Fold this protein.
Amino acid sequence: MSPERFERIKQVLALRQPDLTLCMDQVHKGHNLSAAVRTADAVGIHEVHGVFPETGVRMRPHTAGGSLNWVKVHRHRTIQDAVAALRAQGMQIVVTNLSEQAKDFRDIDYTKPTALLVGQELQGISQEALDLADHQVVIPMLGMVQSLNVSVASALILYEAQRQRQLAGLYQHCRLPEVEQQRLLFERGY
Amino acid sequence: MSPERFERIKQVLALRQPDLTLCMDQVHKGHNLSAAVRTADAVGIHEVHGVFPETGVRMRPHTAGGSLNWVKVHRHRTIQDAVAALRAQGMQIVVTNLSEQAKDFRDIDYTKPTALLVGQELQGISQEALDLADHQVVIPMLGMVQSLNVSVASALILYEAQRQRQLAGLYQHCRLPEVEQQRLLFERGY
Ligand SMILES: C[S@@+](CC[C@H](N)C(=O)[O-])C[C@H]1O[C@@H](n2cnc3c(N)ncnc32)[C@H](O)[C@@H]1O
Ligand SMILES: C[S@@+](CC[C@H](N)C(=O)[O-])C[C@H]1O[C@@H](n2cnc3c(N)ncnc32)[C@H](O)[C@@H]1O
């Protein structure tokens, strides 16, 4: 490994946001999952979560743009298990819902530890996920189409989180525990 | 057609932004093109533009979520032709470029008549497109991955335009010419 590459990995680890994550509830298309992981990496997300169909989801390394080596995907058996794990990390649970009751996605404070839950391509978010949420959010839709692609919707909300966190200075000092940083540098850097 | 449907179409036409558009420079994957058209519809874009590979691009109606009936796709032979058509409509040309020289995408005024140019999945934007631009913009990338999926990048910039236009009141009165509105209501509404 070149010293430049080592430096670059160190810099990226210094921007990681361990208290921001995405959780996918039954997303089943490989290219959506892969595009979402790629965007997660781009805003500094370190680990994503998901409950996936039993038949599995095929990752698309090309669509993921190399992010699969850098963002860990945690699989959970049920959405209840996933949310329990996220709550144990002190996260607020923000769930997308294409509904009148949901707030505009820009009106949430994403500088708090936050897990964003997005739903399945056809069915949308499950009732179980809604029941576990602190906040429901929606992206305004001004056209004829009822919903956005799930990887697009995830990106819009994650980049709103990035905007808020940038303003709040959360990318200014390293937020991964030192041990974790060293472990990753050691594992990936050699 | 039910009176409810007719009302809904009228409402959507009243939100259309004829002075905002997306132009795709050689985007060649059907699902990216289709997802981009879907998002364009969602922010009130009425017509999109593109220069497509000679082999053609297959639209994916499912990924497009029904938007193909509502957003017209104009095909141009070259990017020069496309930009000439957009300039004739008085638009500023904002081009994405993964470069140090590009401005943060949030630092552009999208309330002006604007065409956003995005590039090909592998090659990115062409030099020809860059040469024609008024502004170059980039979405900040804080991870290991070098670029976002093109439909994701388009969505992030178009929703920044939506945010600015909402604040500026550009969705508050109908901006399509009356004749165009009547034509669409007549064509699609019956
Ligand atoms: C294609 S949509 C699902 C559509 C489904 N018919 C429904 O009613 O939810 C897939 C996922 O993308 C996300 N999504 C799509 N459009 C959204 C919007 N406008 N606001 C918030 N989330 C959205 C949600 O997570 C949703 O579960
Ligand atoms: C996968 S990228 C192309 C990557 C190509 N290797 C390059 O260097 O441009 C496809 C298109 O998505 C858009 N895009 C992707 N990431 C972007 C970012 N961070 N900022 C602005 N546009 C981006 C651009 O329009 C780009 O041409």
Observations:
- The beta strands of chain B are 20-25, 47-51, 72-75, 92-96, 103-104, 114-118, 135-138.
- Chain B is about 40% helix and 15% strand.
